Amino acid sequence: MKKLASLLMAGLLAVAMIAPASAAGANEILKGTPELDGALDDIYLQSAVYTIESDSVNYAWGGADIQDFSEAASYFLWDDNYLYVCTVNVDDTPVALTGEKTWQNDAAELWFIDEGLRHKIHAAADGNFFLGGDGDGQTPYDFAGAKSVANYTDDGWCIEVALPMNDLGAGKEFSFTLQVNNCLDDGAAAGSASGSQAGDYGMKCVAEEVVLPEPETEAEVVDVVVDAPAAPQTFDAGVIAAVAAIVSAAGYALSKKR
Questions:
Q1: What pLDDT shows up at residue 255?
Q2: E strand spans, 125-257
Q3: Of 41, 48, 81, 243, which is most buried with the most CB atoms under 10 A?
C-alpha cells in the first residue's frame, strides 16, 4: 500500500509540475478565491506550491521506520480577505486521536514567520484546528476569523484553510514551511513527522490573478420548423387542361347556335 500511495502522490505532484504556462513561480502566490470545501481546486495549480518529499522526515517515534515518510504538498492563493492554503497528503493509515495526544494527529502543521513572529497553524485530517505559537503565542493573524475544512480521501486526506492576515495584498511577504504528522496507530504509539518547522521559505503575494475556467454552457436548443406538406391535388395538370378544353368547346358551340 505504501508503494501505491507514493505512486499516487508522485502523480499528484507531477500534475503541479505541468500546470498552465501562466503559472506563477514556486513562491509566488496568485490572487484567486477557491471554493473552501476541503478539495484541491484546479486554480491552485497555477499558484505557489510547497512540497515535502521522501528525504524530509524530521523524526520518528515508537519504533516507526524513519523511511515511513508522508509525502505532501501545500498550495496557496490569496484574495482581499484571506490567505488560502490547501494541503494534500498520501496516507494509508488515517488516524483520529482524542484526549491529550491530539497534537500527534494526522495533520498539516503550517509554520509561518510573519511580522517577526513565528507560529504554526495545526490543521488535522479529523477537523481539529488550532493555533500554536512560540513564546507568548502571538500571531499576526486574527485566528478567530480563520476557517478550516478537512476531508479524508481515497488516498489520504486534504485540508483547506482560510487565514486572515495583516496587510494582505500584492507585495505581501512572509516565510513558510510545512510539517506533516503521520500517526500509525490509534494510541499514537508510533508515527513520524515529515517536513520542517523552520518557517524559513520565502513566499510572496503577487497581483497576477488566476485564470478561471471557462463556464460550462448548455447546448443551444434550436427549434426546427418543418414546412407543412402541400395539400394533395385531386386533379393533375393534364386533367385540368382537358376539362378547360371541354368547357371552351361547349361555349363555342352555344355561340354558333345563336
A1: 43
A2: 129-133, 147-152, 156-163, 173-183, 191-195, 201-209
A3: 48
